[in-house]
Write a sequence for this structure.
């Protein structure tokens, strides 16, 4: 059935001479990517570049951990926000097109002592999916040492866990955290008035596209 659907889609594309790339894209990445209206500044970069070559983006939004799996399984033509050091047979990776800045985010009033990645092992943490793959071995070791480590597909949940006291540290890109903190605050169900502290103990993370 899936093959039939793909054949219909590709046949339709050929009939109108359209060039559409089915593209795997991670959920919970605003302001970089906003799924509700296919916007965000990362999305705009990709759409502009592909448009200049005559291609349109047909987005497939999936949990972040599934993005490389969709590409490896050939259910999509392309994948966004791939690790720059990814290595996949049969996949061509672009140069870096966007850089994220991850941080260890805590509540300033807690005054947690975080000066290095290893320090995270002392605290409960919540991170994005497959974080050790993107942030390296030192973070993976800290995650194993943590008394309570979790990964969530929806990064909005990170904000809620931090401000309800269920996690001491959020590991997230700073812009993504700020976007969701504002969103959660507007909803009014969780008090997010406490000032966050950002420990930029991670180097910037470069991302590429895979085709």
């Amino acid at each position: 059935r899936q093959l039939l659907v793909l054949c219909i889609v590709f046949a339709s594309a050929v009939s109108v001479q359209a060039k559409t790339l089915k593209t795997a894209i991670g959920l919970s990445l605003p302001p970089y990517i906003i799924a509700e209206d296919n916007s965000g500044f990362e999305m705009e970069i990709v759409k502009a570049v592909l448009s200049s070559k005559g291609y349109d983006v047909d987005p497939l939004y999936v949990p972040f951990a599934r993005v490389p799996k969709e590409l490896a399984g050939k259910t999509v033509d392309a994948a966004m926000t791939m690790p720059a050091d990814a290595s996949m047979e049969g996949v061509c990776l672009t140069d870096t097109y966007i850089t994220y800045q991850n941080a260890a985010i805590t509540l300033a009033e807690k005054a947690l002592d975080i000066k290095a990645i290893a320090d995270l092992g002392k605290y409960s943490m919540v991170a994005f999916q497959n974080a050790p793959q993107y942030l390296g071995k030192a973070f993976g070791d800290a995650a194993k040492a943590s008394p309570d480590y979790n990964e969530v597909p929806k990064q909005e949940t990170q904000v809620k866990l931090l401000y309800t006291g269920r996690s001491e540290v959020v590991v997230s890109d700073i812009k993504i955290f700020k976007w969701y903190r504002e969103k959660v605050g507007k909803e009014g169900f969780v008090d997010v008035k406490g000032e966050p502290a950002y420990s930029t103990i991670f180097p910037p993370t470069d991302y590429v596209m895979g085709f």
About this structure: DSSP finds seven helices and ten strands in the chain. The two ends are 24 Å apart (CA to CA).
